[in-house]
Amino acid sequence: MPESLTSREKQAIATKKRIYSCGVELIKKHGYDNITVKDIAEKANVSIGNYYHYFRSKYDLLVEIFKHGDEFFEAEVPKILEAYTDCKDILVQYFLIYAKLAINDGVDMAKNLYIPTNKMFLTHGRSMQNMLIQILKNEQEKGKIPGTFNCEEITEKLFIVARGVIFDWCLKDGKTDLLAEMEDIISRMAESYIVR
């Protein structure tokens, strides 16, 4: 935290982090649909009113979880991808980072995020998707992806496939090699879009 923050501002940041951490812990343990704002507030040792000071709803907590995922991508993807020049390798590495995000969260958290009621996966304009759209457009400009393909549609299809791979990993209680599966399937998908 910057030194210029007042003790009150530091306390507010700490309280929001505590609410977030407790919410994530409860989601891992009980599932998003099975917890309430009251549960989160009690776990974080704050009033319900204090919860609503930091998050407008329980859904806002989910938004914050996905925001953390986007921030992880913004921090990690550019450094990792600069080492790759082949279009297929770039797409595979991108989705290996996506898989690592699920692994870092743990299979219990993934099981509670990769559910049909979680509409955050359908949110357009998130930086994770925007980053991939831009990568695809760059590759299209280099002639690696035909101009007849729509980069937004490719992004959507690749994410559908990647979510399916993670969902399968969840179904199998994390006992499969998620990285190997993601690499294999995204490699095959990427081949269908790339000019060779």
From TrEMBL:
<dbReference type="InterPro" id="IPR036271">
    <property type="entry name" value="Tet_transcr_reg_TetR-rel_C_sf"/>
</dbReference>
<dbReference type="InterPro" id="IPR009057">
    <property type="entry name" value="Homeodomain-like_sf"/>
</dbReference>
<dbReference type="Pfam" id="PF00440">
    <property type="entry name" value="TetR_N"/>
</dbReference>
<dbReference type="InterPro" id="IPR050624">
    <property type="entry name" value="HTH-type_Tx_Regulator"/>
</dbReference>
<dbReference type="InterPro" id="IPR001647">
    <property type="entry name" value="HTH_TetR"/>
</dbReference>
<protein>
    <submittedName>
        <fullName>AcrR family transcriptional regulator</fullName>
    </submittedName>
</protein>
<keyword id="KW-0238">DNA-binding</keyword>
<feature type="DNA-binding region" description="H-T-H motif">
    <location>
        <begin position="36"/>
        <end position="55"/>
    </location>
</feature>
<feature type="domain" description="HTH tetR-type">
    <location>
        <begin position="13"/>
        <end position="73"/>
    </location>
</feature>
